[in-house]
Design goal:
Helix content: 40-55%
CATH superfamily: Isochorismatase-like
CATH topology: Rossmann fold
Radius of gyration: 13 Å
Family: Belongs to the isochorismatase family.
Number of helices: 5
Shape: globular
InterPro entries: Isochorismatase-like_dom (IPR000868), Isochorismatase-like_sf (IPR036380), Isochorismatase_Nicotinamidase (IPR052347)
Pathway: Cofactor biosynthesis; nicotinate biosynthesis; nicotinate from nicotinamide: step 1/1
Pfam family, one: Isochorismatase
Oligomer: single chain
Strand order of the largest sheet: 3-2-1-4
Protein name: nicotinamidase
CATH class: Alpha Beta
Strand content: 15-25%
CATH architecture: 3-Layer(aba) Sandwich
Number of domains: 1
Amino acid sequence: VDSYSAFFDNGRFGKTSLHSILQSADIDTIFVTGLALDYCVKYTALDGKFLGYDVYVVADATRGVDKATSEQAVTLMKQEGIHVIASMDLDGILFRVRAASSVVFLSPLVIVAWVSAFLVFL
């Protein structure tokens, strides 16, 4: 599947099994890290939000291809209600989120290699 997103192909014609896997595990919050911020991370985060997840992008655990497009991606994600955070903020956020939600960390690069290897349930 040609895809920047972990959830859908580039045209949103086909979907991966990730959404159904997360639903079956009662996951409602995702943290997205990896490469590239302005492509795979952005589209995974946007699609996760579209599907109803509470989405956090750990900005310093990502790297973009281009500074300008990365800044645009961060702006867009924030406009769409995605939380863009720093890794040093994870402890406090995870403490609050874990009390009310089921959480998973997603790294788009790992998804390409093997879908079940990147699911870390807290």
